[in-house]
UniProtKB/TrEMBL annotation:
Main function: Promotes RNA polymerase assembly. Latches the N- and C-terminal regions of the beta' subunit thereby facilitating its interaction with the beta and alpha subunits.
Gene Ontology terms for molecular function: DNA binding; DNA-directed RNA polymerase activity
Organism listed in the record: Lentibacillus populi
Keywords: DNA-directed RNA polymerase, Nucleotidyltransferase, Transcription, Transferase
PANTHER family: DNA-DIRECTED RNA POLYMERASE SUBUNIT OMEGA
Protein name: DNA-directed RNA polymerase subunit omega
Amino acid sequence: MMLEPSIDALQGKIKSKYTLVTLSARRAREMRHAKNCQVENPKSEKYVGMALEEILAEKLFVKE
């Protein structure tokens, strides 16, 4: 079973796996309460998956 989006594609956007996990978890908690996904028609039904899709679509990022 392949998860979408792939970790390789995500690490092209955010290098650190730790940062990737932390950012997506925080965003998932935010979406759970606010119910506002920045990606139209997300493939994932779960909030963490939606947050990862936002990262891949460059709607969610980390300032360095």
